[in-house]
Amino acid sequence: MKQDQFDQSLQSYSRWRDELIHTVEHYQSWLADNDMASPEQEFGIFETIEALRKDRLTLAFVAEFSRGKTELINALFFSHYGQRLLPSEAGRTTMCPTELFYDSDSDSAYIHLLPIESRLQEKSVSDYKHEPIHWTQIALDVGNTAQVSEALHEVIRTRQVPLAQARSLGLYDEQSDPYFRAHGSAPAQVEIPHWRHALISFPHPLLKQGLVILDTPGLNAIGNEPELTLNMLPSAQAILFLLAADTGVTRSDMEMWEHHVRAAHAHAGDNLVVALNKIDTLWDELKEPGRVNASIETQRDNAAEQLRVERSRVFPVSAQKGLLAKIRDDERLLRESRLSQLEAYLADTILPRKQEIMRENLVSQIGGMIDENLAFLEARKEEAAKQLAELRSLRGKNADVIVHLMSKSREEQAAYLRNVESFQNSRRLLQTQARNMLEALSMDSLDRLTNKTRDNMTHSWTTNGMKRGMETFFDGARDAMEQVSGHAEQTRMLIRATYKKFHEEHGLPQLTPKQFSTTGYASELERLYQEAEAFRRSPVTTMTEQSFVIKKFFISLVSHARSLFFKANQDANAWLKEVMNPLVRQIKEHKATMEKRLDTLRRISESRDTLDSRIKELEVGLRHTRAQLDSLQQLRHALHNNGSGRKVASENEEAPGRDATEIAI
Known about the structure:
alpha/beta, Rossmann fold, nine-stranded mixed beta sheet, two-stranded antiparallel ribbon
């Protein structure tokens, strides 16, 4: 059977990403060869190249139990193994969130499993990922399919524990327990997952090219691990939400969709996909094919209407028949499974969107640096051409003309130096603004708020008191972000005014200083606040033991807010380090040029032989600057046009260190 379309497109995407890395490395070499790289630029380019090399495309599979998630993953990505690689059986299979990827830093394939008891500690899964000692490790023998398949069954392992232990782990809720509803009392023993999270590194070709598959448990499990909703699902490039064609949209499906999927990708658009699985349950040899297809389309229309998504994003499939068709190389069965239509959508929509986002980010980051270099060289070229014309006009002129030019140049230099002194005053004001902004974003400030919230919640005797503590925390965090926004706007105004002054009064290139916005952080904080409100008002929160409510609140919501503030602090610090550098370099260059011009005029007044030698020197320099501009323009063109189209090419197409407040001249 021919290579899958998604497989082809991901390979093409990988080649495109390698071309981008080559372009950025070429620019890095150009800066070094022309001695034009600032330390901040060098660090920024290094981080960009590393980010490109580590780039991953995450596809998250989300569904209630028994919807066929794991079978669909097998059918889409692992059919060439000739069997089910991931365990897919009747009933509950995926019992803990599972990430499949390729770890290029490891010499061998592995499974890392985080024990369920880790939920007793106030640490998120992200925190534990930095502490390998807590994970159980199983080596995978990739040459032995049976061993791999058997080892992967560990992911679905469960065990029976006393009710009290299940409660302490936050894994028992009367509201969702069928036994409690049937008998009016809780069971003595409760079945729970053996593991909290699984990391599987496997040398699959698609995983090697950056694909990451996130397989999630059902509704109860996903609700018990808020980090999935708060972090993992929102960071995925696409979410595939599975339904069963024979049941349609059930109550638990809708609850998961509304509370965990749609909320995680509120603005996902094309990247939120619905798979209506198990259409083979509607196949009926006693019915006409047209009537069978009509039944499938009716279920598709109903699902689209209930979930409020476009019909074009609901894909009827049979994962089981698709997997079987690929293993048996049965083209007819593959067509009937409709799996290829879903693969085509992933290849033609999800990958190109990921490609476009990456290209836009790269054009913004590296393209901004290149534009700054181009403006710098254009200014140097214009200044050299101006001096060249001025010196050529001095041929045959008497000494009085040269003396007049020297006097005029000294006046211009004096005015310029006064403005440089004014710039130093602006720089001091900017340092004050920077300190205020970074203080509002500081981890110390947020930790004080966190500790105060924890103390208030721990010593509260009522559920309402605990809930007020949660509200107080987010009110404080939102106030802090609003303060940052105000400081950032004042800082932007000061920087723009400073740039404008030197452009209008001294003809320096008109550059648009890099911007820093808190909009994205504020939006994410608002999403966290809405999650906190839902958690705060939930009846389950009211009925859950107080210590566990506090623990869950801090592990999920507070830790995520802290990560958000940390990222904002880093980005603001980096911005403040870089934002004045273009103007600083221009000021230095212009100052050196004025001094050189005065020195040239002085030497010409002493000896006319200096005039011709300086003209030749300027002519050589001008040719060199023009050559630099040409090569840099070519790099800019390559960056802006590499992969600018929406479609990723397929196989038969053309593959396309100081503190921020220390800003010194």
